[in-house]
Design goal:
This is CYTH domain-containing protein. The chain has 164 residues and is mainly β. The protein is 10% helix and 43% strand. The termini are far apart.
Length: 164
C-alpha cells in the first residue's frame, strides 16, 4: 500500500521566500465529506490528479494518486465538489536532508487567505530533519489544518482565537 509520511507546520515568518526554487498555483476540490477517505481532484498548473487518502490524523497515512485529463478535473471542480481550496505551493529545498527532501509551503487564498503552512515528506515517521528558523508550531496532529477540513471549514470562518 502506498504510504505518505509527512510533517506539517505553521510558517512563522517570510524568510523562506528567499529560498523558493519554483511555485505552482493549485485548485483542488473534494468529492466526499469527512469520513473514512479523502477523495479529491487537483489542478497543479495544467496537470490534473485524482487523489485518495485515508482520513486519519497523523504523520503516516495510505495515499493513492492518479493522473486524469485536465478537462475532466475542471469539470469535477465545477460540478461535483463539496468543498474547494485554492493555494500557491512554493518549493524550498530542505537543508541537511540526505534524501533530497523539499519543503512544500502552501500559501492559501480565497476563504483560507492568511494561512501559510509548510509540509515535508519523509522516508520514515521517525526520520530526522532540520527545522528551519521560519517554522512555527507543528500541526501534524491537528486535523483543522488538513486541506480536506479547510475545504469544508474555511480558515476565514474560524474564530480569531483559534487561528495560528
Amino acid at each position: 500500500m502506498p504510504l505518505e509520511i509527512e510533517r506539517k507546520f505553521l510558517v512563522a515568518n517570510d524568510v523562506w521566500r528567499a529560498h523558493v526554487t519554483h511555485s505552482v498555483e493549485m485548485r483542488q476540490g473534494y468529492l466526499t465529506r469527512e469520513g473514512q477517505a479523502s477523495v479529491r481532484v487537483r489542478l497543479e498548473g495544467e496537470a490534473a490528479k485524482l487523489n485518495i487518502k485515508a482520513a486519519v490524523v497523523g504523520s503516516a497515512r495510505a495515499e493513492y494518486e492518479y493522473d486524469i485529463p485536465p478537462a475532466d478535473c475542471r469539470e469535477l471542480l465545477a460540478t461535483l465538489c463539496v468543498g474547494r481550496v485554492e493555494k500557491t505551493r512554493h518549493y524550498v529545498p530542505a537543508h541537511g536532508a540526505h534524501d533530497g527532501a523539499v519543503w512544500e509551503i502552501d500559501e492559501f487564498v480565497g476563504d483560507n487567505a492568511g494561512l501559510v503552512v509548510a509540509e515535508i515528506e519523509l522516508q520514515a515517521a521517525d526520520a530526522a530533519f532540520e527545522q528551519p528558523a521560519w517554522l512555527g508550531r507543528e500541526l501534524t496532529d491537528d486535523r483543522r489544518y488538513y486541506n480536506h477540513y479547510l475545504a469544508l471549514h474555511p480558515y476565514a470562518s474560524w474564530p480569531e482565537t483559534e487561528r495560528g
